[in-house]
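We were asked to recover a plausible sequence for a given structure. The inputs and outputs are reproduced exactly as logged, with field labels preserved.

PROBLEM: sequence recovery
POSITIONS: 366
GIVEN STRUCTURE:
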């Protein structure tokens, strides 16, 4: 997710420079390799160690399932952006990839919350932005579908079909995310910022709001091109104008939570923030917020938003290198290879054994 969105925003830098497409393509190829590698490793774990499936379903690690369709979305969008203009098969590949990510999105927004309701224990005090993770794929996939619809041929049925499915998915995702963000705000007011171990999750509310900004504008452009004046004179332009207004609302809301996220990180810095893989959760929210800012800049031809986009791109690239360097270091030492769901199971088993042992000792003593 983080690598893919970094490549996309670099390739679309608001102030073009020589080599930006090449740099973006390097990130894209790296992202393809990472996605294939991690997908194979995850599939191999499920096949070779099926006993790990049940602990995964009952663990909070399951919330990370949404990373699969969101990571695939970055591949789909870059395929449309770079491969489609030079290769005729690029748009067909993107079309297939989008339906695959749509299937994973449906599993994420329906299956993961079901497991959360049935098998997980929750309370407001321990609530974090991770609750958004199963829902954000709907926003991301919807936005990607609206972007894809703009490049499909108008003569057939695919463009309006993708626009309809993607638009509904996008609006569904935003509608699901907004009340969770409201609950998260209540949790911050009542229980202070989240602990230092998961402080990076403070950026997660920025994700659906930033991607929502990007997606809503993409939907407006798609309405202009695909629907146009089909139903009423000026329908497409009116829809685009409404989308711009909604985009401003979502962007301002996302900026509010980004300020609080940076504030919470600076406050926890005094306590010492340990590195973990959750740090990658910082790159994607900033990346999609940057993409949303970029779309506002293009749609309104605003140099102010172009400047903000350039600033956010620089921040994103710095964060990516920090996360990447720390990850590579811990891969070398082996300290990063952990499965939280299996550790929780092992801890529970150890506790049960200790309780049985203490009971036996007590009976023997009596």
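RECOVERED SEQUENCE:
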């Amino acid at each position: 997710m983080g690598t893919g969105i970094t490549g996309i925003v670099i390739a679309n830098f608001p102030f073009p420079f020589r080599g930006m497409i090449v740099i973006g393509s390097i990130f894209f190829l790296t992202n393809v390799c990472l996605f294939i590698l991690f997908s194979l490793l995850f599939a191999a774990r499920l096949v070779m160690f099926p006993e790990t499936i049940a602990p995964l379903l009952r663990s909070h690690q399951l919330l990370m399932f949404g990373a699969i369709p969101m990571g695939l979305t970055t591949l789909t969008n870059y395929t449309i952006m770079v491969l489609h203009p030079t290769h005729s098969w690029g748009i067909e590949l993107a079309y297939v990839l989008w339906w695959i990510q749509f299937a994973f999105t449906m599993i994420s927004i329906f299956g993961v919350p079901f497991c959360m309701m049935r098998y997980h224990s929750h309370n407001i005090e321990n609530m974090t932005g991770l609750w958004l993770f199963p829902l954000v794929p709907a926003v991301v996939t919807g936005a990607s579908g609206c972007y894809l619809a703009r490049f499909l041929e108008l003569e057939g049925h695919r463009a309006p079909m993708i626009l309809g499915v993607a638009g509904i998915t996008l609006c569904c995702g935003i509608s699901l995310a907004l009340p969770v963000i409201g609950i998260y705000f209540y949790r911050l007011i009542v229980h202070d910022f989240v602990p230092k171990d998961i402080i990076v999750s403070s950026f997660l509310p920025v994700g659906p709001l930033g991607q929502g900004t990007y997606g809503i504008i993409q939907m407006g452009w798609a309405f202009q091109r695909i629907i146009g004046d089909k139903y009423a004179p000026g329908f497409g332009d009116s829809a685009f104008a409404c989308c711009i207004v909604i985009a401003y609302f979502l962007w301002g809301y996302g900026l509010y939570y980004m300020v609080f996220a940076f504030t919470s990180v600076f406050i926890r810095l005094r306590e010492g923030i340990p590195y973990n893989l959750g740090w990658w959760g910082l790159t994607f929210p900033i990346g999609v917020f940057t993409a949303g800012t970029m779309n506002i800049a293009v749609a309104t031809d605003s140099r102010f938003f172009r400047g903000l986009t350039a600033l956010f791109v620089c921040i994103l690239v710095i964060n990516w290198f920090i996360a990447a360097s720390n990850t590579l270091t811990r891969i070398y030492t082996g300290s990063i290879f952990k499965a939280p769901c299996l550790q929780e199971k092992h801890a529970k088993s150890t506790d049960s054994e200790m309780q049985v042992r203490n009971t036996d000792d007590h009976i023997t003593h009596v």
